[in-house]
Amino acid sequence: MVSERFMKAVLATGVPEVDDEHASLLGHARELERAFLTGASRQYLLLLLENFMLRMESHFRAEEAMADQGLFVVSDGHLRDHQRILREMRGTRAALELMTESISVRDMFRTEDRLVNHIIRFDLEIRHGDMICHAAMADRSGAPATS
C-alpha cells in the first residue's frame, strides 16, 4: 500500500487539486482491498468498487477538462490509459458480479497498482507544466500563484 510519505515524495504532481484527488482515490482503493481481505460480502465489495469506479471516471473527466482549459497537456497515451484502466475495472466488476474463480486478491489489489502506475507514467508529466497550471488555477480562484 502507498504511504502518505511516498505519495508526497514520489507521486506529487505539484498541483494541489490533482494531488488531493489522487490521495482520495488511493484511500478508496485501500478501503476496497481491506474489505476484500476481511471477507466482506459480494454486495458490499460491488458497492465499494462501483463507488471507486465513479470517482475514477470523475477524476479522469476533471483532468481532461483541466487539459482542455490549457492548464496542462494530456497526451493521447494518457487518454488511452484512462480508458484502459476503466475497461480493466469493468472486467474486475464483471468477475465480482459473477463471483467467478477468476476474482483474486491480485485482481482486487490491482486497483491501487493501476492508479499508482498511471500517476507515475502520465500524471507526473504535469510537473513540467506546473507553473503554468498554478498560474491558471490562481487566476481562476483569485489567489496568488505559487510554485
Element layout with pairings:
Elements: H1 4-9, H2 16-37, H3 42-68, H4 76-98, H5 105-121, H6 130-141
Helix pairs in contact: 2-3, 2-5, 3-4, 4-5
What tags apply to this protein structure?
mainly alpha, 73% helix, 147 residues, 6 helices
- Relative strand content: under 5%
Mean pLDDT: 77
Given the structure, what is the number of helices?
A: 6
How would you sum up the global shape?
globular
Query: Stretches where pLDDT falls below 50 for ≥5 residues?
Result: 130-147
The helical percent reads over 70%
Say how many strands there are.
Answer: 0
Distance between the termini: 29 Å
The computed structural class is: mainly alpha
User: Cα-atom Rg, whole angstroms?
Assistant: 16 Å
Major β-sheet annotation:
none
> Could you state the order of secondary-structure elements as H and E?
HHHHHH
Model description:
The two termini are 29 Å apart. By secondary structure, the chain is mainly alpha-helical. It has helices at residues 4-9, 16-37, 42-68, 76-98, 105-121, 130-141. The chain is globular, with a radius of gyration of 16 Å. 73% of the residues lie in helices and 0% in strands.
